[in-house]
Amino acid sequence: AGLSRQESSLLQSLGLSAKPSPKNPAPVPPVLRRMFQRREALPRPHKDRDPCRVEELSVPGDIVRVFADQGRFLPEGQPQGQLCLRRLLFFNLSVLEEGERLTMARLELQFQHNSYPAPSPGQVLELRLYRVSPRGLPQPRPGRRPLLERSFVRLHKSLPLDLSAALKTPGRNLALLLEISASGRTGSLRSLCASSDSFVATSLLVVTLGRQCRAGRSRR
Amino acid sequence: SAPSPSVTPSPLCKPRRLYISFSDVGWENWIIAPQGYLANYCGGECPFPLAAELNSTNHAVLQTMVHSLDPRGTPQPCCVPVRLSPISILYYDNSDNVVLRHYEDMVVDECGCR
Prior knowledge:
A: about 220 residues, alpha+beta, four-stranded antiparallel β-sheet, 11 strands, globular, B: three-stranded antiparallel β-sheet, 7 strands, elongated
């Protein structure tokens, strides 16, 4: 019991409420593995390195997390254009500690193929992202503007979307409605819509400033 | 683990090797990397007169002098970390997310008499 007390106090000093026991650990995202390996390669002692800054992403922060999407596909509605993908994205952010300040949030969409065929002239792919209530219906409130709206002529395997400005206070559970539609005449983009497995995965990379850095800063 | 030195260690205050193995403390299933790291610790004497390489404060110099005059009444200064480095740890948190976190002051680089 003594050891477990010591262990829990050590874990607390490392910012962990309890000893993690991963049930189905996800593969390590390449972006985090690269960051870790780059830091390991730095000569010691890390003289001129700011511990409260993520150099690789050029933002303040000492904690980088990648949250897996726990959402689901939604039946297609046809509010406008040719909707080919409608998905509720759901991220459990309850591990963010009180006092942590979010400095970056990047949504990453992964698609099956490296690139989708160039559309016929006049056709684009439209993406809309709405913030919805984690507990309510997965649909934006009437008249609510999208959190983010993009249109693409070509789509690549990985699509990063910066939500830092929009997600200053993400809350404990974050729910987003993602709609992808093809506008204009139907055409080669149909290939994206035809196979439901075009959409491989979504993850949310979040960078925060933890207590350790915020206390240090106020002291300095 | 702190290997027993094959040669007689210097009695003066300096960093000593200490390797922390996360599997030894039963953390290997949630810490992805590193598997362990060289944390070190400070050990050794702060004798009178303190040489410059012992990172001594003026007060520590005074205290060693008083200790040499009255060893029972005044202890020697302490040999403590005076410069530390951070490390980054890649791990799974309580919700199975992958986290890369920076922890300050985890490696003893230099010791001093204080």
